[in-house]
Amino acid sequence: MGKLLYVLPLLVALMSAGCGKQESDLPVNTRLGGDFTLTDQNGAPFQAEKLKGKVSILFFGYTHCPDICPAVLAQVAQVYRHLEEDGVADQVQPVFITFDPERDTVAHLKEYLPWFKADMIGLTGSLEQIREVAKQYGVVFIKDQEAGERGYLFTHSDYIYLLDEQARVRKLYPADFKIDEVVTDVESLL
To answer: Is 176 exposed, middle or buried (0-12, 13-18, 19+ CB in 10 A)?
Structure first.
């Protein structure tokens, strides 16, 4: 009986430790990400620090893109709606960073992003600021020559970044990502 009195508290402690938040299997990518300051769609400064506390789905693109960017934003919105249905969307922040500050002004982002109904933050800034943030995330974008009525286009990488609550990159997805996979991965970080 005496040994049981010593073992019982140990067992209770071990069982309690297992009841906490389960750590995700998604590795931390230490090569991508970092601090930055841009401007949000309300004209306010936005520091990367503000991403902490929520899981973020981050995407770089531009609003005048004829195909990939709006399709990806629509998919991110679908992920967000699934998370709403699961009751966890308030713990997730979709973020869109433009690399076309000339056309994607604060006012344009404020008007454009609500169409996706995903409580998305839109970020812009000077071209130099955007280049620096893009470099931190390994994003490549090249302004092409004039392309008819749409004006200029961009050739660009199109990865989607999943960031944990400490704003660390945990996973990258191609533009044709599977919605269920992202939902599952997001929920594994909550």
So the answer is: exposed
